[in-house]
From TrEMBL:
Transmembrane segments: 113-130, 142-162, 174-197, 230-249, 255-272, 284-307, 327-343
Membrane association type: Multi-pass membrane protein
Compartments, record wording: Plastid, Chloroplast membrane
One Gene Ontology MF term: phosphoglycerate transmembrane transporter activity
Domain Sugar phosphate transporter: 111-401
Protein name: Glucose-6-phosphate/phosphate and phosphoenolpyruvate/phosphate antiporter
GO CC entries: chloroplast membrane
InterPro entries xrefs: EmrE-like (IPR037185), Sugar_P_trans_dom (IPR004853), Tpt_PEP_transl (IPR004696), TPT_transporter (IPR050186)
Top-level lineage group: Eukaryota
Keyword vocabulary terms for this entry: Chloroplast, Membrane, Plastid, Pyruvate, Transit peptide, Transmembrane, Transmembrane helix, Transport
Length: 417
């Protein structure tokens, strides 16, 4: 008996919904370069999709909310330029750059990079300036850090309720797995805010540039191995930070230890998250950061009330008396909280479009820009040796980024050969 197949063959494939928003715990890292280094293959696999699977990815990208159109500058920006969407949908050929990025026309690429870096740098500078302005007249970092987490939590609830960001389906096991990373995130955030309240912003950022040192040391204790060039790259970081510390005009031990503890907190968060959150593939990076902010707020605010709650009322009246206008004080506090979340959000958006090599350069330059901007705004005195130490530490951070960014690239090339 003969059976006739009258239906034409179909190339349509169906992907599982649980993979629509792939999650990787490395996205927790506040340093975008380190986030990429912790899982170098995830970005490669996301970018180079072929055949029908690539078509399904393009369909998903069409339905993704465009933050640039909905929220506008400086509150959000889409990680996809409209011209790039049209070219991808039309099947127009695209060029691949040597470092792994997919390029469209060069003017469009330059415009895209300018928007991404400009927004990321601008939001980070605004946060650091207004955060320090508030702490200068209201030196209560525990309350300010709690408010910044509150702003991030409210922002994410708005995105979820307005369907501008897909709300993940989570369960009790997800919250249990998130308790540890959220705790270390809380420690890192409040320690940094305490440091900002005690010393110049530029000094805190110089010390925070030593985070790769803690990452290498802690990871080595847990069994990870690093090539010699990575270990050599942390030597100028340690030397530069030490030189900057002993020559800092506004040196304060609380400020120094606050920045150091912040590094420890964020590194432990990254390590812990890799072990406890790998099974939750349905939660993307931005949603994960939103839940981190919510749980961190629950951790931090009760402790803030205990540590400095009795001083808030008197401190508030003194701040209003110093600044003159209550509305100005409210605006500064609001801007510090809002831009704290926005610059983190922009870093997630930027990760979709920039290669590890480009991001390593951008992240190093971002720290330089923030340090220079805050020195100009607050007119902090800088000694020559202090500037030299800061430059050496930042150079070491750049060398570390290059050493760790090139290794995954080589490994990926070996896998494809």
């Amino acid at each position: 008996m003969l059976a006739l197949n009258l239906l034409p063959p179909s190339n349509v494939t169906v992907s599982k919904s649980s993979r629509k928003y792939p999650f990787n715990a490395s996205l927790l890292n506040p340093n975008p370069v380190n986030r990429i280094n912790q899982n170098p293959t995830s970005r490669f696999n996301h970018r180079f999709s072929f055949g029908s699977f690539g078509d399904s990815i393009r369909q998903i990208s069409k339905s993704k909310p465009d933050f640039g159109k909905i929220l506008g500058f400086p509150f959000g920006v889409s990680s996809r330029i409209s011209s790039q969407k049209l070219e991808a949908a039309s099947g127009a050929p695209q060029e691949s750059s040597p470092d792994g990025e997919v390029e469209t026309a060069k003017p469009n690429k330059n415009l895209k990079l300018a928007v991404i870096f400009g927004l990321w740098y601008f939001q980070n500078i605004v946060f650091n300036i207004y955060n320090k302005k508030v702490l200068n007249i209201f030196p209560y970092p525990w309350l300010l850090a709690s408010f910044q987490l509150l702003c991030g939590s409210v922002w994410m609830f708005l995105l979820w309720s307005l369907k501008l960001q897909p709300c993940p389906k989570i369960d009790k096991s997800f919250f249990v797995a998130l308790l540890g990373p959220a705790l270390f995130h809380t420690v890192g955030h409040i320690s940094a805010c305490v440091s900002f309240s005690k010393v110049a912003v530029s000094f805190t950022h110089v010390i925070k540039s030593a985070e790769p040192v803690f990452s290498v040391v802690f990871s080595s204790f847990l069994g990870d191995s690093y090539p010699l060039k990575v270990w050599l790259s942390i030597i100028p970081i340690v030397f530069g930070c030490s030189l900057a510390a002993i020559t800092e005009v506004s040196f304060n031990f609380e400020g120094l230890w606050g920045a150091m503890i912040s590094n420890v907190g964020f590194v432990l968060r990254n390590i812990y998250s890799k072990k406890s959150l790998q099974n939750f593939k349905e939660v993307n990076g931005l949603n994960l950061y939103g839940w981190i902010s919510i749980i961190s707020l629950l951790y931090l605010f009760p402790v803030a009330v205990f540590v400095e709650g009795s001083q808030w009322v008197a401190g508030y009246h003194k701040a209003i008396e110093t600044i003159g206008k209550p509305s100005t004080f409210y605006l500064w506090v609001l801007l510090s909280g809002l831009f704290y979340h926005l610059y983190n959000q922009s870093s997630y958006e930027a990760l979709d479009d920039i290669s590890p090599l480009t991001f390593s350069i951008g992240n190093t330059m971002k720290r330089v820009v923030v340090i220079v901007a805050t020195i100009l705004v607050f007119r902090n005195p800088v000694r020559p040796l202090n500037a030299l130490g800061s430059a050496i530490a930042i150079l070491g951070t750049f060398l570390y980024s290059q050493a760790t960014a090139k290794k995954p690239k080589i490994e990926e090339g070996e896998k494809t050969n």
